[in-house]
Design goal:
heterodimer; A: alpha+beta; Sulfite Oxidase, Chain A, domain 2; 3 domains; five-stranded mixed β-sheet; five-stranded antiparallel β-sheet; 13 helices; B: mainly alpha; 79% helix; transmembrane helix (chain A); OxRdtase_Mopterin-bd_dom (chain A); oxidoreductase activity (chain A); transmembrane (chain A); Molybdopterin-binding protein (chain A)
């Protein structure tokens, strides 16, 4: 078994699978995960705030930015995590696999980290496609796994900290021959397998490749076509019957080895960089207007839909087409025993305010728009609500997790929070919340309640 | 690589030990919190579903994706004996980038075959765009290879 594992480790060893690159990719991935975690928590608590929480209403596009970053960083995690797993793949065949309780827990935490990370970014991506092929609740599991990932990441960093610290410093970027000493260079250029503890490297058969793998590598390392400069393979078996152009036991010229390893490392890093840039640039146009012209693959596009604003839930889906267009519709506003109601005509007759605010969805897409309507703080003043009034908002929707929501006093008191009646200069489309909807700065789209029915001041 | 005691530059053994202890302690707390949240918000079948997805993701990566990448690497390594290393790296880079985009886009055009909420969700013809993307990527990769070979050729002549 040990021989098999060592053989597999050698089989998958290449210059790009080394500790320095594992650290370089690892810290980018950790940064992306931390950004996702921070922005995800912000989005979560905006939707489910703790009693003492207050949120900034300025800048008004704060949530548009944080959630755009959340989704974009999540997408960038795909190339990063695949690159990270690629650099450490030989560790899968580490032998002996378990050396004690500590190593068992370390490997278990890595398995949890890898599994949770892959599931987290996958369900996050598919959620933006509104595609749910799993037997569990998205929001709850996405939230729970975020703690699992950060926890197992912290454990992983704790376990690997000596290696991370050793290979952390940049020194000379990716030309280690410039600043590292000979021993360090050898270690950095070595595939992961060669950095195994010395005792393990003395295991009989550790340097040998035989059987199917051996035949495969003999084919790979067979003499090249005439006139082509041969390159010695790292893993060629010393006892291989084939005669490579450069014998396996003859050391490869140091300069050639360095150049080859350097080309691999640079090629790998450039590929990772291009991969990250491609997935980000070709999708982030759904969140950031600057990248809109490059939006080839995002599930959402700015500027489409009724009144040039995309939508999530239609009036039909919310079952409000009749109630929202009923002639006797009125917005009820109450504060304790004091209750007022306003028809749409009465709301239109009140002083109107126009603001530019984005609709920013939890799925990452966003759209800036111009809204006109009644300032909420002026409306609630009519029922003698104080400066610190918070609201319970009810929609005409028949059902749904956001039919009834709450709005903190910071939003109620903000000058730009409106009961909106028009969008981009036109009467609100029914899919955008006709006859009246809420629009406030820095809030997730799901809390910008459409098809308003009732506002209650909370004591 | 685990099991080796390396001392990090600029970090004393005591600081290293303390930092590791804190990180592992925080990590265990995170795991416990995640487990508590999961158990409190999901029933048993859903939790088993999460476990199955996690296991499936590991198997998909370790037993399918990685061996396929390994085999591609083997072919590339063989080809690498007849083709310039840099050209090979450029081609590999192009293929990897295309595969990454495909990984994101294939579920998208599948999702579009299912009932969607409205016309503003998944508005593109993703299959056609994916085809054009591969075409564009192939042209771009070939162009970069040609430029590299010309530059490298001039350098060789200059020497």
């Amino acid at each position: 078994m040990r021989r098999l594992l060592l053989t597999l480790q050698h089989a998958v060893a290449v210059p790009t699978r080394n500790p320095r690159l594992a650290v370089v990719i690892g810290r980018l991935l950790a940064l992306a995960f931390l950004v996702c975690f921070g922005t995800g928590l912000y989005s979560h608590f905006l939707q489910e705030p703790l009693p003492w929480m207050h949120f900034p209403t300025f800048p008004s596009n704060l949530y548009q930015f944080t959630q755009g970053i959340h989704i974009t960083a999540g997408i960038a995690c795909f190339p990063l995590i695949l690159a990270k797993l690629y650099t450490v793949f030989p560790n899968l065949f580490e032998t002996p696999p378990i050396t004690g309780i500590g190593s068992l827990l370390a490997r278990a935490s890595i398995a949890v980290f890898v599994g949770a990370s892959l599931v987290e970014i996958t369900i996050g991506l598919l959620n933006t496609y509104q595609f749910y092929p799993w037997p569990f609740g998205f929001r709850e599991v996405h939230f729970a796994l975020s703690f699992v990932i950060i926890g197992s990441l912290a454990i992983h960093i704790g376990v690997k900290l000596p290696i991370i610290a050793k290979y952390w410093r940049k020194r000379d970027g990716y030309g280690p021959e410039l600043a590292f000493d000979e021993e360090e260079r050898a270690e950095i250029n070595a595939p992961l397998v060669d950095a195994l503890p010395a005792p393990l490297q003395k295991v009989p058969g550790a340097r040998q490749v035989s059987g199917l793998t051996g035949r495969l590598f003999r084919w790979i390392d067979a003499a090249p076509a005439e006139g082509v400069v041969p390159l010695r393979a790292v893993d060629v078996a010393p006892d291989a019957p084939a005669t490579p152009a450069v014998p396996a036991d003859e050391p490869e010229p140091l300069g050639q080895s360095r150049t080859r390893a350097s080309t691999s490392r640079r090629g790998f890093l450039v590929t990772v960089g291009v991969g990250v840039a491609a997935v980000v640039v070709l999708t982030a146009g759904q969140s950031f207007a600057l990248l809109r012209p490059f939006n080839l693959f995002a599930p959402r596009v700015k500027g489409i839909g009724p009144q040039s604003v995309p939508i999530n839930r239609t009036a039909t889906a919310a079952q409000v087409t009749e109630t929202a267009t009923a002639p006797d519709w009125a917005l009820t506003l109450s504060n304790g025993s004091r209750t007022l109601s306003f028809s749409r005509a009465e709301l239109l007759a009140m002083p109107q305010t126009t603001v530019d605010l984005p609709i920013a969805c939890v799925e990452g897409w966003s759209q800036m728009a111009t809204w006109t309507g009644v300032r909420l703080k002026e409306l609630v003043r009519q029922v003698d609500a104080g400066q610190s009034a918070a609201l319970r908002i009810t929609s005409l929707e028949k059902e749904g997790g956001y039919r009834v929501t709450q709005m903190g006093s910071e939003y109620v008191a903000d000058n730009t929070t409106l009961v909106a009646l028009t969008l981009n200069g036109e009467t609100l489309d029914i899919d955008h919340g006709y006859p009246a909807r809420m629009i406030a700065p820095g809030r997730p789209g799901v809390l910008q309640t459409k098809w308003l029915s009732k506002l209650e001041v909370l004591s | 690589m685990s099991g080796r005691e390396l001392s990090g530059p600029g970090m004393s053994a005591r600081t290293m030990r303390l930092t590791r202890t804190i990180l592992i302690g925080v990590g265990v707390l995170g795991l416990v919190l995640g487990a508590v949240v999961l158990v409190s918000k999901q029933d048993l079948p859903a939790i088993l579903g999460v476990a199955a997805w996690m296991l499936g993701a590991i198997i998909l990566h370790d037993a399918i994706l990685s061996p396929v990448v390994f085999l591609i690497g083997v072919v590339a390594r063989h080809a690498g004996r007849r083709v310039s290393k840099v050209v090979l790296a450029i081609i590999q880079g192009g293929i990897v980038t295309g595969c990454l985009l495909m990984l994101l886009v294939v579920p998208e055009f599948y999702a579009k075959t299912l009932p969607i909420a409205n016309d503003t969700v998944l508005p593109f013809d993703y299959a056609a765009r994916l085809g054009f993307m591969w075409l564009g990527l192939a042209v771009l990769t070939a162009g970069v290879c040609v430029v590299y070979l010309r530059v490298a050729g001039r350098r060789n002549v200059a020497r």
